[in-house]
Amino acid sequence: MYQYTDDDQTLIEERVAQFRGQTQRFLSGELGADEFRALRLMNGLYIQTHAPMLRVAVPYGLLSSKQFRKLAEVARKYDKGYCHFTTRQNVQYNWPTVESVPDILAELATVQMHAIQTSGNCLRNTTSDHLAGVSTDEIEDPRPYCEIIRQWTTLHPEFAYLPRKFKIAVSGSERDRAAVQLHDIGVYLVKNDAGEVGFRVLAGGGLGRTPIIGQTVKPFLEKKHLLSYLEAVVRVYNLFGRRDNKYKARIKILLKETGLEKFTAMVEDEWLRIRDTMVIGEERIAAMKAQFVAPAYDAQAGNDASCEQHAAENAGFAKWLKYNTVDHKVAGYRIVFVSLKAPDSPPGDITADQLEALADLADRYSFGEIRSTHRQNLVLADIKRGDLFALWQKLDALRLATPNIGTVTDMICCPGLDFCSLANAGSIGVAKEINEVLDDLDYIHDIGDLKINMSGCMNGCAHQSVGHIGILGVDKKGEEWYQITLGGSSENEAAIGERLGPAVAKNQITQTITAILDVYLQQRLEDEPFLQTVNRVGLEPFRDRVYANH
Amino acid sequence: MQIIKDKQLVDNTWTFVDDDSEFGNSGDITVSLDRWESHKQQLAHRIGKTGIRLNPGDHTEELAGTLSGVELIELYFPVFTDGRPFSHARLLRSRLGYKGEIRAVGHFLPDQIFYLSRVGVDGFELENQDQIPLALSCMGDFSVRYQASSN
Ligand code: SF4
Predict the structure, then answer these.
(1) Model confidence over A107-116: pLDDT tens digits?
(2) Please, which of A408, A492, B12, B58 could form a disulfide with B54 given CB 3.0 to 4.6 Å?
């Protein structure tokens, strides 16, 4: 994991001091609310329905146990004893006071954490594959490049006042787990015909009101040119992106209105002029790679027989093993998902006690590291087979072992009406209701891979448009209604979900979901997953059932 | 009125003349890019100096090859959230090789001065003169940086 240099540390401390000054000027009336708004957003601070919300950056979803303990401490001292993991791998506190935020940031800075550019119209936190470095299908570990990008984006002087927010994601695997195609810039590590590894760069993807899948603007980019190319794209966007209408201000609209060919030519022209001034040296890449070397794996880990035996004897453990762990690239190890989707807990929420207990487990079993995922779960990436049973027991006691990863109850869900001032409708309560109806684990496991994403408004923070089932809260004359889409995906075959039909009322939502699941179970061929069935049979059978009585 | 130039307070000697007003013969003035392009001859014969004021929607490349002798380019901020002048400054310095003063004018915040300095702005005309001490202190907000830029 990347360790800060003295300069990195100085930078975040100076940022805390700067923000402390800005907060004081705001509180004393010297700085207006509008001005403070832009400045505080660039430091992750929102003013929400009940209280301010502070979003803390988790660069590419990687955390240390030490950082986890600090998150717990902050949750207790400044919040209500818990925090929330977001769909962009970050952490949110829902109840701090404005006055306390500089102190929180100062505390976070002691463990190399910050809230820089976690909101606002600027270059946001770079996200990546939560299985980076350990998955079986990786071309190359994306994290060194993520860190290079993180540094380039941090306090970039030219791009702090963009037309809109700007998000970059990087994936180094064949299977896209980072929703790369749905980012303003998406970067895939790829191998060219000559066998060299470089980048395929996409631009213009994005969710929100007008979900669009990104298009390739550079099929193969040499590694050394990564930053110059990013700089060229963002400069073109900064100069030509629309600023007259906030809903048309994302780069996806610029690309659409300009046309792929012309847009690509503009970027290319800019890039060729700066390319040779921003080359990333081989030493820099090598030094960054050295920050992400594999931990000291135990060569004997493969000799374990206990795991299989426990699985044969304990059905609960066997289920968890099947649903919440995946193959590791090193023999004898597995990757463990820690489910933050216990039936009665809001998706992504975690208490201070759980944070601390997980930090201990990470230290004991997983080299002291923890990752956050896009689907609001956590990952312990390096677990020896022989430790799985003990780990499961401990996670189970912490209520962090619900065996539902990738299933219908592993919903992602924005804060909705409960916390967000922009919401049209509640989402946490609906998630809970769906969970209550789907309380039979065997049924859930029978349904298999199904991603439900639910957002409380068009901003789409929970990426509902790419959920296999998307649920979007809409306001109908002051009442909470829900728009349903089917067939979305954020993976390799990225797709925007199609609208099922008219929105359904709040008291109809659970029966609508169960009706959709029923149709799927009737229509599926053998082991066909939900998404494939929807793509094969289309929406009609689902419409017929859901709107049968309308 | 005082402005900040190279981190020092100096008196401002320049006036912006909008497109509807006569620009006269004497005094140091800035004019819009439109006027700069359409009245090149007349402007060249003035006794006073002439500089250019760029709006966020202007394109800096139109100035290529025309900047010799120009001592001031103003970057006008209609709102502080419009980030285009940041790119303009960077391009003026790095692409057009412009060495004269680049001055931020209009609605920008002292809190933006650190970044503006980084991209090559060296003059700051603050709307609120009371903010000059704050602006000067903001120039030292950060002692470290990740990106190469103009400064
Ligand atoms: S989707 Fe809407 S309601 Fe939900 S968190 Fe985002 S802005 Fe708030």
Answers:
(1) 999 999 999 9
(2) B58
The reported pTM is 0.95
Quick check: CB of A117 below 6 Å from ligand 1? no
Residue A51 token pair: 């209280």
- Tokens 């699985």 correspond to what residue? A311
Q: How many CB pairs under 8 A join A and B?
A: 85
B93–chain A Cβ distance below 8 A for any pair: no
User: A5 exposed, middle or buried (CB, 10 Å; 0-12, 13-18, 19+)?
Assistant: exposed
| Joined tokens for residue A288 | 């960054």
pLDDT for the residue A343: 87
Ligand 1 pocket check for A459: Cβ under 6 Å: yes
- ipTM higher than the 0.90 cut: yes
Q: What is the pLDDT of residues A232-280, one digit of tens each?
A: 999 999 999 999 999 999 999 999 999 999 999 999 999 999 999 999 9
Residue B79 at interface with chain A, using a CB cutoff of 8 Å: no
pLDDT reading at A211 higher than 80: yes
Q: Closest Cα partner for A43 from A9, A14, A19, A63?
A: A19
Helix (H, G, I), strand (E, B) or coil at A200: strand
Expressed in angstroms and rounded, the spacing between residue A84 Cα and the centre of ligand 1 is: 14
Is B147 within the bounds of a domain?
Answer: no
The enclosing domain of B44 has a CATH number of 3.20.20.70
Quick check: is B151 in a domain?
no
Residue at B143 is within a domain: no
CB contact under 8 A, B147 and A152: yes
DSSP 8-state secondary structure symbol assigned to residue A233: H
Q: What is the pLDDT of residues B84-138, one digit of tens each?
A: 999 999 999 999 999 999 999 999 999 999 999 999 999 999 999 999 999 999 9
In whole angstroms, how large is the CA radius of gyration of chain B? 15
Residues of chain A numbered 370-429 and touching chain B (CB < 8 Å): none
Total number of domains constituting chain B:
1
Does the residue B32 lie in any domain? yes
Structural domains of chain A sorted by starting position, each given as residue range(s) with its CATH number in brackets: 6-109 (3.90.480.20), 134-291 (3.30.413.10), 301-397 (3.90.480.20), 412-546 (3.30.413.10)
Q: What is the pLDDT of residue A50?
A: 62
- Determine the distance separating the centroid of ligand 1 and the alpha carbon of A471, expressed in angstroms: 12
Q: How much distance in Å is there from the Cα of A410 to the middle of ligand 1?
A: 19
Instruction: List, in order, residues 6 or more apart from A482 with CB less than 8 Å away.
Output: A425, A430, A471, A472, A473, A474, A503, A504, A505, A506, A509, A512
Closest-CA residue, ligand 1 atom 2, reads A457
Tokens encoding A431: 């998630």
Give the range of the structural domain holding residue B94, as residue numbers without chain letter: 2-18+25-73+83-138
Joined together, the tokens standing for residue A130 give 């939560």
**Residue (of A159, A165, A181) closest to A236 by Cα position:** A159
